[in-house]
Design brief:
With 63 residues, the chain is mainly alpha-helical. Helix content is 81%, strand content 0%. It has helices at 2-8, 10-16, 20-37, 42-60. Helix 1 packs antiparallel against helix 4 (42-60), helix 2 (10-16) runs antiparallel to helix 3 and helix 2 packs parallel to helix 4. The model has no long low-confidence stretch (mean pLDDT 91).
């Protein structure tokens, strides 16, 4: 579910992984990037969100 949310709203997805400070910073960069580039930078934020989701799942996994 969080991976689908990362496609639509990467900052919210990052917030749900437990990184509120990074989510605010990404949100402040994401909005102008969408406006000025016409959405061309959106895949970069999706990849960042997916990486953070994967990392948070790996850190919760028992070894």
């Amino acid at each position: 579910m969080n991976y689908i949310l990362a496609i639509l709203l990467p900052p919210l997805s990052i917030l749900l992984t437990g990184r509120p400070f990074l989510a605010v910073i990404v949100f402040l960069i994401w909005i102008p990037a969408l406006v000025f580039s016409g959405g061309l930078t959106h895949p970069m934020f999706i990849l960042l969100a997916w990486l953070l989701i994967f990392q948070s799942r790996e850190s919760r996994r028992p070894m």
